[in-house]
Every structure is written in structure tokens, then in C-alpha cells.
């Protein structure tokens, strides 16, 4: 069912909506001119420390993925299994690849948790327990130190 909201039903005056449209159009034209003339590179926000931090967090996410267990949903031997992934809200099916978090025992689809970690999240999406198993922390620190030496 599609619900169309007209100008009168939003509660905003017509002139206000037209003004917003005109301002957005002007902004798009100015940004387009900046890109064409090459000025846009001065307008963009560049922070090398922020970029390095993002690269480091990306490396840490890759290392964390290497240390986490991957299995299929049908191979998990627990009685209290959830029916669906808390990230994508899709039901688990027998052959779905699953990441089992050892610190909190929550499970997620492989792609869902990888995407979560890629966004610089090092904690469980449900309970905020660290994703990296406590037992693997020392190995993780060794690998991260080596990766940082190679990257710098």
C-alpha cells in the first residue's frame, strides 16, 4: 500500500517546501561547479591521522576475522539457538555460514558480522562483549604488531 503525502498533509507551508527544494538545487549546482573547476579538493575534509586510524582498524578487523570460528548453522550443537540473525533479521538456515562468538556465545551470519567489524566495531552487536576471544588476544596482538610494521 502506497501512502502519498501532499503538501497540505505535511503541515509545512508550500513556500517552505519550495524554498528547501531551491536551496538543495543551489547546493548541488555549487558542488558540481567545485568538482568541475577542481576546487572541491580544497573543500573535502582530509585528515591523514584519521585515514591511518581507519587503515589500522581495517587491519585489525581482518586479523579478527582470521581468528574467529566459522561453521554452518546445522553444525552448531546447542539447544538455545536463536531463530534469526540479530543484524539482518533473516532466519538461519542449515547451510548458512555462521560466526560463533566465544566470549558471549551469540551467533551471526558470516557476512553480517564481517560487515559489522568492517565498520570499526570490535564488540558484539547485541551485548557489546569484545568480539575477539579472550584466549586469542595474545596471538592477535602479535599479528597486529607485525602488520603495523609491514604497513608503516
Automatic annotation (TrEMBL):
InterPro entries for the chain: Znf_RING (IPR001841), Znf_RING/FYVE/PHD (IPR013083)
UniProt cross-references to SUPFAM superfamilies, sorted A to Z: RING/U-box
GO molecular function, one term: zinc ion binding
Cytoplasm keyword on record: no
Alphabetized UniProt keyword annotations: Membrane, Metal-binding, Transmembrane, Transmembrane helix, Zinc, Zinc-finger
PANTHER family reported for this sequence: RING-TYPE DOMAIN-CONTAINING PROTEIN
Protein name as annotated: RING-type domain-containing protein
Amino acid at each position: 500500500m502506497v501512502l502519498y503525502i501532499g503538501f497540505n498533509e505535511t503541515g509545512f507551508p508550500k513556500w517552505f517546501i519550495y524554498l528547501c527544494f531551491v536551496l538543495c538545487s543551489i547546493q548541488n549546482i555549487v558542488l558540481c561547479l567545485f568538482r568541475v573547476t577542481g576546487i572541491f579538493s580544497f573543500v573535502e575534509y582530509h585528515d591523514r591521522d584519521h585515514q591511518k586510524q581507519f587503515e589500522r582498524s581495517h587491519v585489525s578487523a581482518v586479523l579478527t576475522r582470521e581468528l574467529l570460528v566459522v561453521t554452518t548453522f546445522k553444525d552448531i550443537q546447542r539447544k538455545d539457538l536463536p531463530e534469526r540473525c540479530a543484524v539482518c533479521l533473516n532466519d538461519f538456515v542449515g547451510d548458512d555460514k555462521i560466526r560463533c562468538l566465544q566470549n558471549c556465545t551469540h551467533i551471526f551470519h558470516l557476512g553480517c558480522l564481517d560487515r559489522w567489524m568492517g565498520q570499526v566495531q570490535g564488540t558484539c552487536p547485541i551485548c557489546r562483549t569484545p568480539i575477539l576471544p579472550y584466549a586469542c588476544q595474545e596471538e592477535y596482538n602479535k599479528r597486529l604488531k607485525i602488520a603495523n610494521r609491514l604497513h608503516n
